[in-house]
What we know:
By secondary structure, this protein is mostly beta strands. The protein has 4 helices and 10 strands; from the N terminus they run ββααβββββαβββα. Strand 9 (about 165-175) and strand 10 form a beta hairpin. The longest helix has 8 residues, at about 50-60.
Amino acid sequence: MPSIDEYNGAHITVVNDGKRCIHSRYCVLNLPEVFKPNVDGPWIDPDAAATEAAIAVIAKCPSGALRWRGEAGGHEEAPPGVNTIRVWEDGPLAVQAELSVAGDKASHRATLCRCGKSFNKPYCDGMHRKSGFKATGEPESGEIETLAVKNGPLAVTPTKDGPLHVVGALEICAASGHTVWRGTETWLCRCGHSKNKPFCDGSHEAAGFKAEGAVE
């Protein structure tokens, strides 16, 4: 399993959590002087560009593999103003929130498996591509609540052999950006078999889906 590596710069430390990485390549395509592809040795140089530029790219890392903190107790990445899950076409659920995934609060971002094939559940590891998983990124809009509070803690708990139980203010968005659902509690499919994706419809039972759960 990839380790968590830290790269110290003059103003920020960049943390790379390899087990979360889905190789979206946003970092190396948008700031290659800091995030250097195909090199031997350290591949992140926080001082190779303006600190603000590095932070902006880190904030776009969908998996939360990259995060940052200020040196000597300085600023850290802030949670978003609106908790969201974006449904990727034929791919995972991309979350941005004041996030806890099975108790892991390391990052405000994560990509969560919804094909059922990941070897790194509940996180995506790219198996949706190898398995030929198909699921729309443009589900029909359902119940659209008006939320008085749109941010704050969001707890995602994988249930044993079942869906993701999500508690907290949340807006689920299609890949194109339109709102699919708003609310404060829902169950999301992670077995890949629901006929009502991204929501669970109980298909995991008939499919014989097996996955570890977490204590809520």
